[in-house]
Specification:
CATH topology of the largest domain: Rossmann fold
Number of strands: 11
Oligomer: single chain
CATH architecture of the largest domain: 3-Layer(aba) Sandwich
Shape: globular
Strand content: 15-25%
Distance between the termini: 29 Å
Bound molecules: magnesium ion
CATH class of the largest domain: Alpha Beta
CATH superfamily of the largest domain: HAD superfamily/HAD-like
Helix content: 25-40%
């Protein structure tokens, strides 16, 4: 099959063949950005050239998937569905810190170092504590999630509206604990808008960014093709692992130069603006 020719028109990309809108874009002359947006929209096109007339040529890799839509939206919980500035994750972090100090009889500084080491090495502190100190995971989860969720994050009507507009399954995929996740979702006012919560128990204590956690999450979600899935997360390492599997990735937070990040949004509310196909019928 020859390369597919697409036409740049009124700041919107269309396929010449099918007139399917690929992505709504802002004006840009950034080749890299355009490539990423196309990847994010379809996962099949790789821009190979861009002429002064505004026509560009893509490889034909995966053109049979041109009509493909996203089928599954995976959403991280902490610092993704609520603002990093809320203090909620800091509160959980404080409980993790005090658990380590108490359980391992460490001073604050040593506990802090150990926590950072385990987070970097295993993705969660719990994983390191289970492997190296045989802690009871349920005791840990109960202890660290005993935080005043209701005092730290307000209901979020804008998030409710945004999630309600999304037409594919919305699945929370978190390294946290189901009871805590449900408290957060209820407090935000979105528990009825989440189709499934995949937590650390459902993941059988594997966790992002371990590839096993993603395989288990996909299985629990009904085995959608990773190429039709999006992951929204505030941690680049978690997104890079998803990209390795072929998922589209959305970073919530500061912009990233990582090639594995397809979209970057400042806050979760910008998701459907960045990926408008999520709300298409
Ligand atoms: Mg997070």
């Amino acid at each position: 099959m020859p390369p597919l020719l697409l036409t740049l028109k009124d700041e919107t990309f269309y396929t010449a063949a099918s007139e399917i809108e690929l992505v709504d874009i802002a004006p840009t002359d950034s080749r890299h950005w355009t490539q990423n947006r196309l990847r994010g929209s379809t996962k099949i096109f790789w821009m190979t050239s861009l002429s002064p007339s505004g026509r560009f040529t893509c490889t034909d890799e995966g053109n049979e998937n041109l009509l493909m839509k996203y089928t599954t939206l995976f959403l991280d919980l902490d610092d993704t569905l609520y603002p990093r500035t809320s203090g909620l994750w800091e509160a959980v972090g404080g409980r993790i810190q005090s658990y380590i100090e108490m359980k391992l009889n460490l001073c604050t500084e040593d506990a802090s170092l150990l926590r950072a080491q385990y987070l970097a090495q295993f993705g969660t502190t719990l994983n390191g504590l289970m492997r190296n100190h045989q802690v009871d995971p349920m005791e840990y989860l109960d202890y660290v999630h005993d935080v005043p969720v209701e005092n730290l994050i307000p209901p979020d009507p804008e998030l409710q509206t945004m999630l309600a507009s999304i037409t594919i399954p919305r699945i929370v995929f978190t390294n946290a604990y189901l009871d805590y996740a449900m408290r957060v979702l209820k407090q935000l006012g979105v528990s009825d808008l989440i189709d499934q919560v995949i937590d650390i128990l459902a993941l059988e204590f594997s966790n992002k960014p371990d590839p096993l956690a993603y395989h288990r999450a996909l299985a629990l979600a009904g085995n959608p093709s990773p190429a039709t899935c999006l992951l929204v997360d505030d941690r680049e390492t978690n997104l890079s692992a998803a990209a390795e599997l072929g998922m589209t990735t959305v970073l919530v937070g500061d912009g990233a130069a990582e090639e594995t990040i397809d979209y970057t949004i400042e806050q979760i509310h910008g998701l459907t603006i960045a990926v408008p196909s999520l709300v298409r019928k």
